[in-house]
Design goal:
globular; 2 domains; 8 helices; D-Maltodextrin-Binding Protein, domain 2; five-stranded mixed β-sheet; alpha/beta; disordered C terminus
Length: about 325
């Protein structure tokens, strides 16, 4: 490996104006200050990003948890760096309130996500788990913006989105009086059968107090958004990305408590073995590693040959643990 890190990397984000794209610009801005130039490649979503990583077209990508198993990687060329936030599955639909969850949408015109996106993958997986068709003339593969437009115009009955609550398509549909948000009533069953999903309970008014959105408490299912790289990515770049990942995501959000992310939990891609030395005093550590009187500074040092054990990367990222009640500890 070249002892000098590259001055430029390629990052696969997602659809224009999606949250992968938004966060990609934030990483680009922050890393530029360190002399690392970040070039974008937009895509349909997670599956396309994984394929570009495998082809060597990009160095790093945002990827939805649960999609790595859908792309063959027999040589183990990809590595998971960290989970950086939770992105719920939002299912918006028109018509009367449903009573039996996702199964109520059987036979309707559904937009399942763009081809090659994580949204399409999770939508088909959940429909299949319920014994419902995953393909057919009423099941459409549409980009997020087009799915939103068709739902607003009444040309489809429901649309699926996997994204942050800050996504413009999500926020716009939440405000429409003629569109409803579908909740999950069997969240524990879904989480046990789909290990990459965890329940997210959203309180009434949490997303907008003034407009009272959502208008009632609701439970959604969410995979984690991951940073994934090629195994050959320079260790210094891995360190920079995780450092700025902490800065960008560590403060938390309306759905994620502070200092929950970055985390290794929820990463279903083989973890990157991060070398070098890195202080982690600013990160929440596993309970077993905390001192009773408070947190102390820990520095990981590279071992023989410049490599470290897996415990090194565990020090770079924090840990979260899902509970069956939809919370995080």
């Amino acid at each position: 490996m070249d002892p000098f890190p590259p001055r430029r990397i390629w990052l696969a984000t997602g659809q224009p104006d999606g949250m992968y794209d938004v966060f990609g610009h934030e990483y680009q801005r922050r890393l530029a200050r360190e002399g690392l130039r970040v070039e974008f490649q937009r895509s349909a979503g997670s599956l396309e990003n994984l394929e570009r990583l495998l082809r060597g077209q990009v160095d790093v990508a945002f990827v939805q948890g649960g999609t790595y198993q859908l792309v063959p990687d027999p040589k183990g060329r990809l590595r998971g760096m960290a989970a950086v936030y939770r992105e719920p599955l939002w299912i918006f639909y028109r018509g009367k309130p449903v009573t039996d969850g996702l199964a109520s949408l059987a036979g309707r015109r559904l937009a399942l996500g763009a081809p090659g996106s994580g949204t399409e993958a999770i939508s088909q997986a959940l429909l299949g788990a319920l014994g419902l068709p995953t393909t057919g003339p009423n099941l459409l593969s549409l980009p997020a913006a087009e799915a939103r437009q068709r739902l607003e115009e009444g040309r489809i009955d429901a649309a699926f989105f996997v994204s942050s609550y800050r996504d413009r398509n999500v926020t716009a549909l939440l405000r429409r009086p003629d569109v409803r948000l579908l909740g999950f009533t069997r969240e524990v069953a879904f989480a046990r059968n789909c290990r990459y999903l965890s329940p997210v309970r959203i309180a009434e008014g949490l997303l907008d107090l003034k407009a009272d959105l959502p208008r009632e408490e609701i439970t959604l299912m969410a995979p984690a958004a991951l940073l994934v790289c090629r195994e050959t990515l320079h260790p210094r770049v891995v360190e920079q990305l995780l450092t700025f990942g902490r800065d960008v995501h560590g403060a938390g959000s309306l759905l994620d408590p502070p200092r929950t992310f970055p985390s290794r939990e929820g990463v279903d891609v083989p973890l990157h073995e991060h070398p070098g030395r890195f202080p982690v005093s600013a990160l929440r550590r596993p309970a077993a590693a905390r001192h009773k009187g408070g947190q102390s500074l820990r520095v990981f040092r590279a071992g023989r040959g410049g490599r470290t054990s897996r415990s090194s990367i565990e020090g770079l990222v924090t840990f979260f643990r899902p509970t069956h009640e939809g919370g995080w500890s």
